[in-house]
Amino acid sequence: MTAAAPSVPSTRLAFIGGGNMASALIGGLLARGLEPASIQVVEPFEGARDRLRQQFGIAAALAPEAALADAGLVVWAVKPQTFAEAAAQARPFVDPGALHLSVAAGIRSNSIGTWLGTTRVVRAMPNTPALVGQGMTGLFARDAVTAADRAQVEQVIAPSGEWIWVDAEEQLDAVTALSGSGPAYVFLFLEAMIQAGAEMGLAREQAARLAVGTFAGATELARRSQEPPTVLRERVTSKGGTTYAAITSMQQDQVPAHFVKALHAARTRARELGDEFGSA
Ligand SMILES: NC(=O)C1=CN([C@@H]2O[C@H](COP(=O)(O)OP(=O)(O)OC[C@H]3O[C@@H](n4cnc5c(N)ncnc54)[C@H](O)[C@@H]3O)[C@@H](O)[C@H]2O)C=CC1
Ligand SMILES: O=C(O)[C@@H]1CCC=N1
């Protein structure tokens, strides 16, 4: 479970890939007081390098270079499809004793370990609310990872929100389907609620404010309540009332079952990514 928020990492950090997820983690670390100079980033695309310079004052390298050897913790924030190639490019420069933290969906720790010649690998599955310090992250560590290594990883993740450790690596695929992809499901529901509000005569801005506020309020209520979501739902649902009409319509259309099915599809895709783009 999530512990008290630890301080920023004392070791030097390198990020391989400086896109959305890397930026979310870096932004949190800098907000906690980490010096931009203690973070290296390897990022081949000029647009992304420009953003890192403007947002964070970090001069990212175009390609791996000798300075990578200074990093005690290397964070892999590249797409699953490019991980193997990025690992092959960076490996000659990385300290063989470094700890590695991957946020890539699906790519298994034994693939990463094989590509990098190490067993000191932790996998993380964060999500984009990390951008506002409210992320949820699942973490998995290989056996060779020590308690001190885990603490370092927690220092990287803590500024972006909460985290849990899972015991079995395949559980990370479930985390990916649930909370990794989860913000997109919430946004899809928001889109539908806003559309419905607009169709029923509300201004889109009003509908958006009502929808977003409802998600924020309902999730905060669920977070603080001792009751499970089912009980909270039943309290909104007066017999023969409006919510009953909506929930009955959704159940007749099997919306909950289809939604569960969709998460299984996401989990299946996470496994496929590991099979397609992993080597071991
Ligand atoms: N976006 C999301 O909601 C989440 C993404 N992830 C994972 O995070 C990883 C990164 O995703 P995003 O940040 O969204 O993608 P992104 O496309 O924003 O960032 C990836 C970056 O890697 C760079 N890159 C490409 N080849 C490279 C190489 N050889 N060496 C170094 N950098 C290279 C790209 O230029 C790009 O800026 C993915 O593996 C994804 O599965 C995990 C959780 C949530
Ligand atoms: O869609 C994806 O593959 C990534 C992983 C979780 C969120 N985005």
From TrEMBL:
User: Where is NADP(+) annotated to bind?
Assistant: I16, G17, G18, G19, N20, M21, A77, V78, K79, P80
Pyrroline-5-carboxylate reductase dimerisation domain boundaries: 169-273
GO biological process assignments: L-proline biosynthetic process
Q: Which reaction equation describes what this protein catalyses?
A: L-proline + NAD(+) = (S)-1-pyrroline-5-carboxylate + NADH + 2 H(+); L-proline + NADP(+) = (S)-1-pyrroline-5-carboxylate + NADPH + 2 H(+)
Enumerate the InterPro entries for this protein: 6-PGluconate_DH-like_C_sf (IPR008927), NAD(P)-bd_dom_sf (IPR036291), P5C_Rdtase_cat_N (IPR028939), P5CR-like_CS (IPR053790), P5CR_dimer (IPR029036), Pyrroline-COOH_reductase (IPR000304)
Domain Pyrroline-5-carboxylate reductase catalytic N-terminal: residue ranges: 12-105
* Principal localisation: cytoplasm
Which pathway does this polypeptide act in? Amino-acid biosynthesis; L-proline biosynthesis; L-proline from L-glutamate 5-semialdehyde: step 1/1
Localization in the cell: Cytoplasm
User: What keywords were assigned to this record?
Assistant: Amino-acid biosynthesis, Cytoplasm, NADP, Oxidoreductase, Proline biosynthesis
Task: Kindly list the GO CC terms recorded for this protein.
Answer: cytoplasm
Q: Name one Pfam family in it.
A: F420_oxidored
Question: What job does this protein perform?
Answer: Catalyzes the reduction of 1-pyrroline-5-carboxylate (PCA) to L-proline.
Family the UniProt entry places it in: Belongs to the pyrroline-5-carboxylate reductase family.
Q: Which PANTHER family match?
A: PYRROLINE-5-CARBOXYLATE REDUCTASE, PYRROLINE-5-CARBOXYLATE REDUCTASE 3
Query: What protein am I looking at?
Result: Pyrroline-5-carboxylate reductase
Q: Which gene encodes it?
A: proC
